[in-house]
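note to self: dont lose this again. the chain is below, predicted strucutre after it. 290 aa total, dont forget to put it in the shared folder this time
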Amino acid sequence: MNIDLKTAATFMATQARLLDRRRFEVLFRDGDPAAALAALEAYRNPDGGYGHGLEPDCRSVTSQPGGALHAFEVFADVGPMTSPRAAELCDWLASISLPDGGIPFALPMPDPDGSAPFWADADPSVSSLQITAIVAVTAHRVAAHDPAVAAHPWLAKATSYCLGEIEKLDEAPHALVLAFAMKLVDALGDTRLVEKLGRFLPDDGVVAVGGGIEGEAMRPLDFAPEPGGPARKLFRPEVIEADLRRVAGGQHEDGGWRVDYASYSPAAALEWNGMFTVGMLGLLRANGLV
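---
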């Protein structure tokens, strides 16, 4: 599994947006975390949330849960440096949370041009396990080095909501819901709920994404990204090995990785590949391959 970081750096310099170039530099080139935070600031709104296409398929300028997810990714990347913006983002998430502690998949947007229908048409009155779980997972990554996020009541309430919804599952949910819920209970070390969700997984760990493009699926590393987590025990070692080879083999000659799902605007198609490349390199690094 040979990963070419030099070529990846060329790809990021020539095909990725500034924010993701700064993230790459922090993670793989001893870059300045403050520069990544400065790049993130351009997507922030006065209400404390993030929009302006930070989530590539949600082009709205308005603050959105998808933007919160990707902002937390940056706050996680720059650790152990902390930013007061992370706790302020928790404040914003608390302000949009529904009474059950969950957050809606998306909020109303007056400017839906270029946004995927599932963002633009989401029901803001209903909590979404899918988005709440993945935002909470990423916030917990930040909480590992940021005491203000760790102690924030929003994170506790959102986590409690997710665990309650996972307890209620009696049949396999959508592949993305399953993957994000599994990531949460894996990160929390909740072996019982990991095993509960594991009953919905086939032996090869490949779950087709309903409504996605042909061949789009969640795969073993989408459910068990961390080598030390309880979710890894759901898979045979050779299954994880094969999936690591798949990810490593996904690097193109130009150094980047390409997403295997649809993009909804020309800007998103470009931006996803830089984000995805950082994500795949981060996954491989977590597994000792970079």
